[in-house]
Amino acid sequence: YKPGPWEGQTTPLTNAYPVPIIQHLLHSLGGNSIFTKLDMTQAYQQFPVDEETAEAQTIVTHRGAFRCKRLQFGVSVAPGIFQSIMERLLYNIDGVIPYFDDILIA
Prior knowledge:
Helix content: 10-25%
Oligomer: single chain
Number of domains: 1
Strand content: 15-25%
Low-confidence stretches: none
Structural class: alpha+beta
């Protein structure tokens, strides 16, 4: 486990991030003729969360309570958190656009 730059800055309990408008993203790729898309497997779960968030993501079943120490699908602000991280990581790379758990490359 290695802490990432997102820890301490994004807490699913309080974080909000605007959803990108797909038409704007596609327009920025105008003039390109070859495209590919990368679909990241278990994308959200690549990122650890802080203790407060892990507590909020606890799942209770007939077999006990399980604390999720990774960002989970289904958390209302998870897409925004993931989008903001990916935009920061891929910023200024021409022809590369993150869209949630997909990366479009032109």
